[in-house]
């Protein structure tokens, strides 16, 4: 595309946008009307401020795709355009009400007619109905034209309306109340018309961005980043994909929209770009976030491609949703998988997703999938939880492993492990990382610490315990806030270096910790530790004193155990 045709911009008020026969339509696949009370209230307050200060007000970017002649498709800005049209309709309605009350009847009817033709659309000479200059999406347009544009209450009341239709009607009712409150004292139609012509349509200023196609719109979205640009990455992706289905009839489009709704309901609107990227990375060479839209634009060029992609996405959506929620009932069909997914969630890891999406299509035995999830969990503890390496390489290696699975070069568990070898931290490095590990005992860090301590305890004692099932608390041996007696060997700097080291923590029953251990001196604490059921606490009685060196030795011993707990044969 030539640089000069990528986009054009203008600063325009509403009067300029709606003049000279221009019309606007919302593509049928775009989201429904969604503004609510707080948005309408903010707009009205802005208008009152504008009227008082006689200053222009910036309404953000209006992104338009140029169509035939003076017709434009709204890529971003439909919520604002729809709301302003409804506000003008409320003013028109009030003028007709004044006329019906015999208040300057002829003049107010003429004012209402002029406002309608200027900003809302002209009457069709046959039906005598207003054909709006703005057309909403497939779900909202019938109600917008047949009810709002005609200012007719819905038959049967609002109870039977769809959610977006109810919001549209509530918006009209809101502005009718505001207009009545503002103008009912004087009842002067010229003031109402002046409010529309001089405030609403002249003082609200947009940057109109005209683009040639959806790819240009995406470029604008990435680079402009203007305040008021409401379109999300998910919206843009949806708009591009479904723009290919734009010529389908409403009955044909409805199943496509329903399928899109099912997919996004599962994975979440905000998470959809991540989901799509993980899906693509399970099928093709590594795609970065910035390349997402360009990749879709290049690979999905026909309606058949759209249908095939949506089918694949729906197939993966349930897995993606479950992989981010270890408590999902989805895992009931995969015994033991929940525990591995919980570890992945605990360490906030998602880079493994393409591998699992590929593996579930190739490895049909649930036990094989469980093993692959275990590999990912072990790698995550070594790489992310303890090693804290840069995660950039994770995505590339998991992408390569996913492709090997898809292409049939990694059809065994041994082959999958070999594909993951580059991100398996070697034992000597893992041991060194564990020796140096520091963790806070609170919040997410505290949950990770509790998990690590429980796994080490289980390995040493052979007891069937988990960090979820046990009632133990995590005890600072050297207290976070030491008492005045018994900890003189730790200077302020030594305390700062030591109290959050993993070797300074132990598991202790809640009653023993709260009532008897606390901030007491180490010798007194040892008497409490001797009463514990946990081997790692009982063994604290073997130390004659608690120093920086003691903490380092204990943590080194724990690191040796950790190597065997989180281990793969690679």
Description:
The chain is 56% helix and 8% strand. The chain has 570 residues and is α/β, with parallel strands linked by helices. It folds into 3 domains: 3-224, no CATH class; 233-425, no CATH class; 432-565, no CATH class. The strands form 2 sheets. It has a 6-stranded mixed sheet with strand order 1-6-3-4-2-5. The protein has a two-stranded antiparallel ribbon with strand order 7-8. A hairpin with a 4-residue loop joins strand 3 (57-66) and strand 4. The protein starts with 6 loop residues before the first strand and ends in a 5-residue tail after the last helix. Mean pLDDT is 89; it is low at 224-230.
Defining traits:
six-stranded mixed beta sheet; alpha/beta; 8% strand; 25 helices; 3 domains; 570 residues
Distance between the termini: 49 Å
The residue-averaged pLDDT reads 89
Radius of gyration: 32 Å
Strand content: 5-15%
Basic shape: elongated
Count of helical regions: 25
Spans of at least 5 consecutive residues whose pLDDT stays below 50 are: 224-230
Record the strand order, biggest sheet. 1-6-3-4-2-5
Number of strands: 8
Main beta-sheet strand count, sense and barrel state: 6 strands, mixed
The amount of helix comes to 55-70%
Structural class: alpha/beta
Number of separate structural domains: 3
What is the structure about, briefly put?
With 570 residues, this protein is α/β, with parallel strands linked by helices.
Task: Give the topology, please.
Elements: E1 7-13, H1 14-17, E2 23-25, H2 37-53, E3 57-66, E4 71-76, H3 78-100, H4 105-120, E5 134-135, H5 141-148, H6 163-183, H7 189-200, E6 204-211, H8 214-224, H9 233-243, H10 250-267, H11 272-281, H12 292-299, H13 303-323, H14 337-346, H15 353-362, H16 366-386, H17 392-407, H18 413-419, H19 427-435, H20 443-461, E7 473-476, H21 492-498, E8 505-508, H22 510-517, H23 522-529, H24 535-538, H25 548-565
Parallel strand pairs: 2-4, 2-5, 3-6
Antiparallel strand pairs: 1-6, 3-4, 7-8
Helix pairs in contact: 3-4, 3-6, 3-7, 4-7, 8-9, 10-13, 14-16, 15-17, 19-25, 20-25, 22-23
């Amino acid at each position: 595309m030539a640089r000069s045709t990528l986009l054009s911009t203008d600063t325009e008020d509403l009067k300029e946008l709606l003049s000279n026969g221009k019309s606007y339509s919302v593509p049928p696949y775009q989201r429904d009307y969604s503004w609510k009370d707080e948005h309408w209230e903010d707009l009205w307050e802005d208008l009152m401020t504008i009227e008082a200060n006689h200053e222009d007000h910036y309404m953000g970017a209006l992104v338009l795709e140029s169509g035939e002649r003076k017709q434009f498709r709204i890529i971003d800005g439909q919520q604002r355009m729809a709301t302003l049209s409804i506000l003008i309709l409320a003013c028109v309605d009030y003028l007709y009400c004044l006329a019906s009350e015999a208040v300057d009847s002829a003049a107010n009817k003429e004012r209402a007619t002029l406002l309608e033709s200027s900003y809302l659309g002209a009457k069709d000479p046959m039906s005598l109905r207003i054909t709006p200059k703005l057309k909403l999406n497939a779900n909202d347009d019938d109600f917008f034209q047949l009810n709002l544009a005609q200012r007719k209450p819905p038959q049967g009341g609002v109870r039977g309306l769809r959610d977006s239709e109810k919001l549209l009607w509530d918006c009209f009712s809101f502005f009718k109340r505001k207009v009545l409150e503002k103008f009912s004292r004087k009842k002067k139609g010229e003031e109402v018309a002046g409010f529309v012509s001089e405030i609403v349509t002249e003082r609200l200023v947009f940057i109109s961005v005209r683009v040639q196609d959806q790819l240009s719109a995406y470029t604008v979205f990435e680079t402009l980043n203007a305040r008021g640009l409401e379109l999300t990455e998910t919206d843009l992706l949806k708009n591009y994909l479904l723009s290919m289905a734009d010529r389908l009839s409403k009955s044909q489009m409805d199943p496509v929209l329903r399928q899109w709704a099912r997919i996004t309901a599962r994975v979440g609107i905000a998470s959809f770009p991540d989901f799509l990227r993980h899906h693509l990375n399970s099928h093709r060479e590594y795609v970065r976030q910035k390349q997402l839209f360009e990749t879709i634009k290049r690979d999905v060029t026909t309606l058949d491609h759209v249908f095939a992609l949506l089918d694949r996405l729906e197939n993966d959506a349930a897995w993606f949703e479950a992989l981010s929620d270890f408590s999902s009932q989805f895992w009931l069909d995969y015994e033991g998988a929940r525990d591995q997914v919980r570890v992945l969630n605990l360490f906030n890891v998602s880079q493994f997703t393409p591998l699992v999406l590929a593996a579930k299509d190739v490895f049909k035995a649930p036990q094989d999938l469980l093993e692959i999830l275990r590999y990912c969990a072990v790698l995550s503890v070594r790489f992310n939880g303890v090693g804290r390496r840069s995660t950039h390489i994770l995505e590339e290696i998991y992408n390569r492993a996913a492709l090997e699975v898809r292409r049939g070069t990694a059809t065994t568990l041994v082959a999958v492990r070999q594909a993951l070898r580059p991100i398996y931290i070697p034992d000597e490095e893992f041991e060194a990382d564990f020796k140096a590990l520091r963790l806070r005992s609170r919040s997410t860090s505290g949950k990770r610490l509790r998990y690590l301590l429980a796994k080490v305890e289980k390995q040493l004692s052979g007891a069937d315990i988990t960090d979820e099932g046990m009632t133990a608390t995590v005890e600072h041996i050297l207290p976070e806030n030491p008492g005045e007696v018994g900890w003189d060997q730790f200077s302020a700097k030594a305390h700062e270096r030591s109290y959050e080291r993993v070797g300074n923590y132990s598991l202790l029953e809640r009653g023993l910790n709260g009532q008897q251990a606390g901030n007491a001196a180490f010798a007194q604490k040892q008497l409490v530790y001797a009463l514990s059921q946990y081997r790692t606490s009982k063994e604290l009685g073997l130390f004659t004193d608690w120093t920086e060196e003691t903490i380092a030795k204990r943590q080194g011993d724990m690191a040796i155990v950790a190597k065997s707990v989180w281990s793969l044969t690679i």
